[in-house]
Amino acid sequence: MNLLSFFRRHQRELHCACWIKSGLGAMLGMGFIGWLGVVSGEPFLIAPFGASCVLLFAVPKSPLAQPANVVGGHMLATAVALILRVWLPPDWWAVGIAVGLVIGLMVALRVTHPPAGATPVVVMLTDPGPMFLLFPIFTGCIVLIAIAWIVHKLPPHTAYPMVHEPDL
Predict the structure, then answer these.
(1) What is residue 152's DSSP assignment?
(2) What's the Cα-to-Cα distance from 89 to each of 42, 83, 94, 95, rounded to whole Å?
(3) Count of structural domains, the chain
(4) Does residue 2 lie in a domain region?
C-alpha cells in the first residue's frame, strides 16, 4: 500500500464561485440561527448545525445533505438521546451508547446525517428537556434547509434538493 494514498484529495476542484457560495451560505445559515437564538432566548447555536452547514452548502448533492436526512437525522438523534437521558447519566459510557444507537438507527432508517451523530453528545451532556426537539432542532433544520435552497439558486446554480426520477 502506498502511504501517499492516505493524503490524496478525492473532491474535484471547484470554481471559486462555489467556494464563495459555500462560505456565504454557512455564514447566512448560522447567522440567522444565532439571531433566532438571541430574539427567542433559546440555545439555537449548537455545534452539530455548523457541521450540517458543511454538507448543506459545500456538498449539496450528497445524499447525506438532503432535507430528509438533515431533519430525520437530527430529530431521530435528539429523540433517542432525550429518551436515554431519562435513564442514563451524563457519563462517557452513556454518551457512547447514545451515539452508537443513533448511528445504527439513522443507517437503518436511511436518514444518515453525520452531524446528527454529535447531537446526542449535546443532549446527554446538557439535558435540555423535550422542547429541544422543536427549538432548536426542528426549527434550526428547517431554517438551514430553506437558506440552502435559496443559496443554491444563485449562480452557479446547484440543484437542491436532489430530485430523483421514479423507477418505472
Answers:
(1) T
(2) 24, 12, 7, 9
(3) 1
(4) no
> Within a domain: residue 139?
yes
**For the chain, what's the residue count?**
168
Q: Is 162 helix (H, G, I), strand (E, B) or coil?
A: coil
Residues 6+ apart with CB under 8 A from 87: none
Return the amino acid letter for 138: F
- pTM score of the predicted model: 0.92
Asked whether the predicted pLDDT for residue 165 surpasses 60, the reply is no
C-alpha count within 13 angstroms, C-beta hemisphere, residue 11: 9
CB 17: neighbour CB atoms within 10 A? 11
Q: Return the amino acid letter for 98.
A: A
Domain residues for 125? Answer: 15-151
CA atoms within 13 A on the CB side of 87: 6
Instruction: Quote the CA–CA distance of 18 and 108 in Å, as a whole number.
Output: 33
List, for residues 3-30, the tens digit of each pLDDT value. Answer: 888 887 777 777 788 899 999 999 999 9
Q: How far apart are CA 37 and CA 43, in angstroms?
A: 5
